[in-house]
Amino acid sequence: MRQIIEEQILPRVIKPIRYQGNEFNAVHKNWEETPVRMVFAFPDLYEVGMSHLGLQILYGLVNDEPELLMERTFAPWTDMEELLRKKKVPLFSLESYRPVKDFDFLGFTLQYEMSFTNILNMLDLGGIPLKAKDRDDSYPIIIGGGPCAYNPEPLADFFDLIVLGDGEEVILELLKLAKKYKREGRIVKKEFLEEALKLRGIYIPSFYEAEYEEDGVYKGIKPLNSKAPVEIIKNLVENLDKAYFPTKPIVPYADTIHDRVMLEVLRGCTRSCRFCQAGVLYRPVRERAPETLVKQAKELVKATGHDEISLTSLSTADYTCVQPLITLLMNEFQDKNVGVSLPSLRVDAFSVDLAKEIQKVRKTGLTFAPEAGTQRLRNVINKGVTEDNLMEAVSGAFKAGWTTIKLYFMIGLPTETMEDVAGIADLAYKVVRTGKQILKESMIKKPVKVTVSVSSFVPKAHTAFQWVPQDTIEVLEEKQQYLRSLIRDKHITYNYHDARLSFLEAVFAKGDRRLGKVLEKAWSLGCKFDSWTEHFKYDLWLDAFAACGLDPKYYAYRTIEWREKLPWEHLKTGVSKEYLYHEYEKALAEELTHDCRLERCTTCGVCGDLKVKQILQKRRG
Amino acid sequence: MGIYRLEFSKGPEVRYLSHLEMMRTFQRALRRAELPLAFSEGFNPHPKMSFASALAVGVTSENEYMDLELKENLEPEEIMERLNQSLPSGLKVKRCIMLSQKGKALMAMVGEAHYHIKVKLLHALSQTHIQEAITSLLKKKSIIIEKKGKKGPEKKEIRPGIIKLECVGVDEEWVKFTLAVQAGSEKNIRPEEVMKALQIYEKLPIDLELAIIHRKGLFKKGQEQLMPGPHPAFKE
User: Fold this and answer.
1) What ipTM was assigned to the predicted interfaces of this complex?
2) What residues in A contact B28, CB-CB < 8 Å?
3) A12 CA to chain B: closest CA distance, Å?
4) pLDDT tier at B234, thresholds 50, 70, 90
5) Which CATH number among 2.40.160.20, 3.40.720.10, 3.30.750.200, 3.40.50.740 corresponds to the domain A345-507?
6) Cα(A55)–Cα(A42) distance, integer angstroms
């Protein structure tokens, strides 16, 4: 197989290095001598998947164990897929060029809903039956994890096992357990799955049956297996400072999206933006100590040769030791020409000061996310940002020499009016005016550039807005065009996303098991790489829904009642449904919720119910 | 401060690296080797290193060259050893010498490149037949091929740049050529272009998509060495 791939396939595809798997620090273990083998599958292109920190963590972790091995596979681009099918070569792992079917586990990371068709396509390319019930013990166990694992119901037919929460502890337990159930080279699936239930955060979809009312409303889920728990609670690394971190991440040859050292400074965020799913899934906040991070940074630079360290987390400016950490890193790396970067900035002057400190030379654009155009709507979503915060931040940026500012907004947020939409344009103009004045005063000749990026709000499971209907495509498009008509300035670039894609994302984000057949139908009609504009085929999706007799509007446009059961309710993030509903009510009343790092506990439920503690490195003064 | 010239090979493991990816790979290996790199001035400091020639995606090579500047003087053997420990498999520094002073840019010195090429035949042909096609091609005063330019297809005259082309063997499926062409900033002839000419002008039935191209040597004009000392390509 290797020969066919190397001689007949790779010379004919775009960017063959996507499929080579011999990058620096890639691990090639002895197949015969390693009893349990897993292939990590990223259902998107190599360049996207290799930018994913989770892959690097699990890859290092598993391969450090003598009895386990992990290889990688990605969604082949369409030219590659065509050749694989033509030459009858199954989807293979990059490291050893073995069919993914030969592994004990095929583990998909579920990062976003619109990659689901790629999962089916990859199974098919691997010669693996799509449905769990059609796979005997000769096939790998198909597992999934990541943010979309918190509502995997549309994927329930296809997966054998879902892992909830932080994966770095449970994955080893799971793979080691599998060794005990391996007979004649294959895992005895049924026995293994039942035993796996004893581990935390393991959800076996086939052990449950979903029930619906006569009118189609979801009624609840019923365990079919006496060992299957009624609810599944997420995994959680209690002390991130002591958690495993990969010292030798793979260094891709290709230009990936994040081509730098990713230093995870903290996990979790409790700013409590009401639209944000990650803020719920990754609670509580757990910070690493600055000394640990500096040590890790040194090891990572030495092992990769990268010239940039990105301080990653959901909100790095919130790290209690961000200032001392940056000083430590700058002292360590400045004369080695290794830079430090922040992936996103909080909208305030403090963040701009941080950016100023680390970007002494390279003045690329700065990005801020006010999310909504008026104070009223920002209060609704609990984005604790004022117009003053934004103006202070951009003034600071312009004064420090930045001339390009990028602003992220959402349209279609609950309670939004056309006035709120117009507020986006007002803010953009205000930023331009401020910029022009400051640049004029500081005698800078470069023109001010403001980019306004507007995405459409997608209500997500496990958030305060999970009960809320999404704006219809027509309304979203009307808002997009209205904003277009308001923004007519050569200094402002305005872009927005395809509302139809956001609609489908909403359907699957809050979908139930019935959507499995739609997914399969859409894939069979040719849908894949849906989040890539050139491959998005909305009409085929509508055909798929029609063929299955399901209405996508039912999932995206309906207000869900409080008394209704939610299809993802049995999967526990630790944040209570009552808390979320209370947040929803507060949103409608335009009331704010504080960050529990700064004041008292907000009783979301995580720390109490999961018996964990928030870990901050320093108490704020 | 020390300036060094390195000779390295690019093996099949890394054949699909583009020139940009190759430069990045070296930059990272240099950092991993913790060599005292000299950096360029300006907004975006880069390690001071320059390659003799860009090698196309898919092409392997026996002898590539790069100049490297360090902040300190190190023994060339040490640089070679440390770098080889940090390079991915497929890239190997074969020789390293210290230059007495910063001379002409390495890239400007390149004048000639030698290749070994293996191409798949669409149907069996004898070596004599292929050699005749070559002779016929080389008799032409002008060979124009079309290449992709910035603004659509462009015409390119390649005849004066072909120094030598020979068929050195045929088995049922594959035909082997050796080729010497003009290379460098003045005029650069790519081996695929010569193969394309054989296909178009002489109707040679070859599958260019599956060509295996290996650069055997890189020289100054008139086959003069880019790096003093014995040259492995001459051992044959």
Assistant:
1) 0.90
2) 24, 251, 304-306
3) 7
4) very low
5) 3.30.750.200
6) 8
Q: Determine contact: A539 vs chain B, CB below 8 A.
A: no
- Quick one: tokens of A364? 């690329």
List CB contacts (< 8 A) between A10 and chain B. 16
Inter-chain residue contact A362 with B90, CB threshold 8 Å: no
Q: Are strands B162-170 and B174-182 parallel, antiparallel or unpaired?
A: antiparallel
**Alpha helices, DSSP H, located in B115-236:** 127-139, 191-201
| Tens of pLDDT, residues B148-195 | 888 888 999 999 999 999 999 998 789 999 999 999 988 999 999 999
pLDDT score at A336 = 87
Provide, as residue numbers in chain A, all residues whose Cβ is less than 8 Å from the Cβ of B89.
22
Residues of chain A with C-beta less than 8 angstroms from the C-beta of B25: 24, 253
Record: contact B88-A24, CB cut-off 8 A: yes
CB < 8 Å to B30, chain A: 305
Please count the helices (runs of H) and the strands (runs of E) in chain B.
5, 10
Of B31, B86, B211, the CB nearest to A307: B31
Partner residue facing B16 (CB), from A7, A16, A251? A16
pLDDT digits (tens, 9 = 90+) for A17-46: 999 999 999 999 999 999 999 999 999 999
pLDDT at A621 over 90: no
Round to whole Å and give the CA distance between A541 and A539.
5
**H-run or E-run covering A607:** helix A606-609
Using CA atoms, how far apart are residues B211 and B191, in angstroms rounded to an integer? Answer: 10
Domains defined along chain B, listed by start:
2-109 (3.30.70.580), 112-221 (3.30.2350.10)
CA of B22 to nearest chain A CA: how many angstroms apart?
Answer: 8
pLDDT at A361 exceeding the cut of 60:
no
* Residue A534 contacts B, CB cutoff 8 Å: no
Query: Was domain A2-233 assigned CATH 3.20.20.70?
Result: no
pLDDT, one tens digit per residue, over B204-217 is 999 988 899 999 99
pLDDT single digits (tens) A178-209: 999 999 899 999 999 999 999 999 999 999 99
Q: How far is CA A329 from CA A49, A241, A310, A338, in A?
A: 27, 17, 11, 9
